[in-house]
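If your schedule permits, I should be very grateful for your opinion on a structural question. Please examine both parts with care and let me know of anything in them that strikes you as inconsistent. The record follows directly beneath this note:
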Amino acid sequence: MLITDFTRSFVRIRIDLDKTKPRTISQPPPFTLNNARFPSECLCRVTQGEGSAARAVDYMLVAACKAEQVHVRENIWHDPAADMCLVASSDEFLIVKSWDRNNRGVMLSPPTLGQQPERQAGKWADAFTDLRIDRKELSGQLLASTEEIVAAVLGNRPLVSQTEFSTPEGSRVFLEYPVKVINVSERDMFYQVDTGPVLVPDADAFDGTHGISALRLAFIAHNTLGCTEMLLNVPTPIGQGLSVNHYSRVLKVAAENRIIAFD
């Protein structure tokens, strides 16, 4: 069966200041052109509707990085420092940034654009000169039993997992992601995936306009016994009116999980 080759799948954004005014940065860029390449972490396909009216949208989550100033001799890291990751579809983007606390008050550049949101969604053509999703595929072997999964893990074969479930709103979700951490036992004959991040739709996050805004980061766990749980990254109170973005909300779903090995 064909699966995403996450080692060769990338999202690339291009900002040409001669053509596009940036809308997502917090410091003036010291360059006129930049191409940023991000490796892929998770494919999330959300399907709404039934039959001929069904509409599927693919979203790609990329690897996290830190907020940086590109092409400078020193002071590369932003102060205050921020975690940053990008989600992309064929026409939309979502940038998720996290500082040492929420509502940090970091301004966009230029400041006339206002405060930088921690979740910034929009049409990518409004923020970037170009955005490309280059997804490569390879052939994999569906592992049909716990014994095959255990043997593949102990044999150090790379793995990709797929998870499918339905949301309370009636959408169907297909996730595909590399298995980074997995537990197995050849004596008790079990496996348990613990990996991420992946993307999970959350109606509470929807901004009312951009479909991509409804996606949250999550870690996923599933095991031999059929249990599937996601741990969502959400604003989490830490006292005195402060909150941080943290993996703290558990979502349990009835899901179909598959594990695929490749060489």
Observations:
- The chain has a mean pLDDT of 97.
- The helical segments are 146-154.
